[in-house]
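Morning F.,

Quick status update on the modeling queue. The single chain you submitted on Monday has been processed. Sequence for confirmation:
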Amino acid sequence: MKEITKNIFYVGVNDRNKTLFEGLWPLPNGVSYNAYLINDEKVCLIDTVEVDFFMPFLENIREVIGDRPIDYVVVNHMEPDHSGSLALLRQFYPNIEIIGNKKTFDMMAGFYKLTTGLKEVKNGDKLSLGGHELQFVLTPMVHWPETMMTLCAPYVATQSQQTEPTTTLFSGDAFGCFGALNGAYVDEQMNCDVFWLEMVRYYSNIVGKYGTPVQMALKKLAGVKVDYICSTHGPVWHEHVEKVIGIYDRLSKYETEPGLVICYGTMYGNTERAAEVIARAAAQAGLKNIVMYNVSKTHHSYIIRDLFRYKGLIVGAPTYNTGLYHEMNVLLDELSQKDIKGRLFGWFGSFSWASKAVSEIQKWNDEKLHYETVGTPVEIKQALNADTIAQCEALGRQMAEALLG
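C-alpha cells below.
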C-alpha cells in the first residue's frame, strides 16, 4: 500500500525511458506521473497518468480499492501526461463522474470526445466524500488556462483526534519537478537533494513565463495550513512544504541572488577565450557564483534555469552567415519568450571579416529582452589582442561590481 496520509494513496507511475519531456526538456533522471486516490465513502481519483502507463496505473488503483467503483475523478490539469488515461478509465469505470471547470471540459471534448458524466465546479466550490471534503481552487495560467488545485481536509474531526486535521493540496503541475521516484513517494522518506535544481529547471522552462498567475494562485492559498502538497510530478511534499512554497514565491517574483551566467557560442575557440577572460575578471572582483555554458553543448533548459537563479547574464558569439551564430539566436529567442524581469546584461562578439554579432545581440536586447545594460560591449576581430583583453576584463569587472552592488 502507498498510503500518504489517512485514506489518501499514491497511485502514480514512473517513466524512466523518455529522454525529452514534451519533446523539449532532457530527463536525465526520468519523470513521474503522479495520481492520487481518496478511499472514502465516495472514492475519488485525483488526476490520471499518461496513457502508455494505463495498465500499471489501473493495477495501482485496484491494489487500494479492489473491485470498488470509482465515483469521481478530479482533473486539475488537462495536459495529456495527466489526462491521457481518462477515456480508458471511463471504459473500466463507466459511471465515473469527471470533475473539472468549464475550460477543462472545453479541452476534454477536443482531446477525448468526452462530453457526458461531467460535474462542473467553480472557484471555492466544495464536495463531500464522506470523511473528507474537497475544495476547488481555480488557478488559471499556472500554466494552462484551465489549471486548478484541489484542497482536501477531513470533513469532521473525530473525538479521538489529538491533532489538527491534515490538509492536503493536490496542486496539479505546480510545485512539481523532473525526476522519477526511486521507491519512496513522500519527501521525508528520501534524499531530496537531486530534486531541488530540477524543480527550478522545471519551473523556469515550463511555468516561468507565468509569474503573475503563480503569485495570484499563492495569494488564494494564503492562510491555508497545508500539510501535504501532492503535485503531478516529483515527490509528495510534507517535510519541505514551506521550502517548496518559498521557492515558487521567489521564482515567480523573479528574485535572484548575486551571480553571473556566461554563455557563449564558439567555432574555433576565440569567443570562448574571451568568455574565460570575462569570467576570470568577475571572479577577481569578488563574485563567487559564476556559471559558464557553451550554447552548442549544454541544453538551453539548464541555462534558463540558472538565469532564474542569478541576476547577471553575459552572452557572446561569433558572426555567422552575416548574422548571429545560430545557437545564440535560438537561446535569445527562448529568453525573449520567458518574460524574465530585472536582469543585468552584457555582451561581446567576434568576427573574421564582417561584423554583425555585437549589433545583433544589441538588437535582441533593445527589441525583446529589455534587460539593463552593464558595461560596454566588446567586439573582437579575428582573435583577442591586448585592447580587447582589457575590454573583456572591464566587462567582467563591471558586471561583478553591479551584481555585488
